Amino acid sequence: MRYIIVGTGAVGGAIGGRLAEAGHDVVLVARGAQYEALRTHGLRLITPDGPRTHPLPVVDRPDALDLTPDDVLVLAVKTQDSVAALDAWSDRPVAGGGTAGERLPLICAQNGVEGERLALRRFRRVYGMCVWLPATFVRPGEVSAAGTPLTGILHLGRYPTGTDATAELIAADLEKSKLLAPVVPDVMRWKYGKLLSNLANAVEAVTGPLTGDAAPLVERALAEGRAVLEAAGIDAVGQEEQTKARGGRMRFEPLDGSPRGAGSSWQSLTRGTGTIEADYLNGEIVLLGRQQGVPTPVNAALQRAANAFARERREPGSMSVAELTALIDAAS
């Protein structure tokens, strides 16, 4: 199989780099400065094993690549960029007839739970992936991933439920690439568990590295999340099961010369992209709360604050926990 990484940022770069390192065919998809750096210098992946540079094929648009029936699309863009990417790739012809949306498997290697829904409107064969992979976009063309001995743990399954032979083949390729990929029939249960942990992303993005001062605020956001999922009848993997699944297989090691690892929302602010995924993390809880009649003032306020930081391109971590808490309390 050939893996087409749609969105070669931190997660896409780490997955693509590890797959290439293990000898698998990989094509990277990127735009702007990232595309130019990858095309000119290759993908530089820094891990506890040391830095490696992978001179991989890279394209900046779907029509620059001829698709084959053996291709697998890995959607690794942020959820807010999914529709444009899915629309661009789903209608592309595949050798032998048909389109990518009709014939090719697409993996949503994303936070949140909306990407799979968006994908299934356009692709017949959609797979969810719960991404536990600490990675950082360092600069154009360079990604660091601090996990060892495994780079990441990526629960994988068909969307909305089930498994199949394709998932098993993909998992086998990933597991040759220092990426554990348990194939599970209930992948969205894992992704909802990850969603709860990602509710802290907005707090980190706005106030900086999470400390004891932020714990009460994070717990309030989590309490709302758990209440909403319970009201909606949605099962989510708990912390104990997540810890057992990791089983000490992945620890974090500092990387010489690389910046401090931080969550994906922090990285969006650092890069000044003008967007952030809060609408699909805290905003998912707000949406479910409105559907179920469960108040979610903390997550609504976090969603607004994170979006304001992104829109105004404010410095990540430039608001104190006390200021954010006061802002939330005033809105509650």
Structural class: alpha/beta
Tell me about the biggest sheet? 8 strands, mixed
Give the SSE order as H and E letters: EHEHEEEEHHEHEEEEEHEHHHHEHHHH
Mean pLDDT across every amino acid position: 95
The tally of strands reads 14
Q: Describe the global form.
A: globular
- Provide the β-strand percentage band: 15-25%
- Whole-angstrom Rg: 19 Å
Separation, N- and C-terminal Cα atoms:
51 Å
Unreliable parts: none
Strand order of the largest sheet: 5-2-1-6-7-8-12-13
Description of the molecule:
This protein is an alpha/beta fold and 332 residues long. 43% of the residues lie in helices and 19% in strands. It has 14 helices and 14 strands. It has helices at residues 10-21, 32-41, 82-90, 100-103, 114-120, 165-175, 187-198, 201-207, 215-232, 239-246, 264-271, 282-292, 297-311, 321-331, and strands at residues 2-6, 25-29, 43-47, 50-54, 58-59, 71-75, 105-109, 125-132, 135-139, 142-145, 147-149, 152-158, 179-180, 250-252. Strands 5-2-1-6-7-8-12-13 form an 8-stranded mixed beta sheet, sandwiched between helices. Strands 4-3-10-9 form a 4-stranded mixed beta sheet. A two-stranded antiparallel ribbon has the order 11-14. Strand 3 (43-47) and strand 4 form a beta hairpin. Helix 8 crosses helix 13. The chain starts with a strand and ends with a helix. The relative contact order is 0.13. The model has no long low-confidence stretch (mean pLDDT 95).
